Amino acid sequence: MKILTAIVLALFTVISFAKTKEEKTKEKVDEEYVKDICLMKDKFLRGKKLQECIKDEFEKLQKSKLK
User: Fold this and answer.
1) CA pair distance 59, 37, nearest whole angstrom
2) What is the C-alpha to C-alpha distance for residues 36 and 38, in angstroms, rounded to an integer?
3) Percent of the chain with pLDDT over 90
4) Residue 58 near residue 36, CB atoms below 8 Å
5) d(CA 8, CA 27)
6) pLDDT at 67
7) 53 with 38: CB under 8 angstroms?
8) Integer distance in angstroms from the first to the last C-alpha of the chain?
């Protein structure tokens, strides 16, 4: 019985680690996407700072995911 419990716990650990890694990867892709958008916009909109643009675009992306 202890062996079965250990196997189940190990399986849950592996699954949760994989999900966490997938979420982090998705987040990193989103960050890169937002940075790319802002860099392109920065070429056209010189008045707005890049960090502000990144923050604004990331918030827009998060809101669009919630809808």
Assistant:
1) 13
2) 5
3) 0
4) no
5) 29
6) 61
7) yes
8) 45
Please give the backbone phi and psi of residue 9, each rounded to the nearest 5 degrees, phi first.
Answer: -60, -40
Distance, in Å, from the CA atom of 46 to the CA atom of 44, rounded to the nearest integer, reads 6
- pTM for the complete prediction? 0.37
Neighbouring C-beta atoms of residue 30, cutoff 10 Å: 15
**Distance, CA of 43 to CA of 25 (rounded, Å):** 28
Q: Cα–Cα distance between 31 and 49 in angstroms, integer?
A: 17
- 37 close to 57: Cβ distance less than 8 angstroms: yes
For 27-57, write each residue's pLDDT tens digit. Answer: 676 777 777 777 776 666 666 666 777 777 7
* Per-residue pLDDT at 46: 63
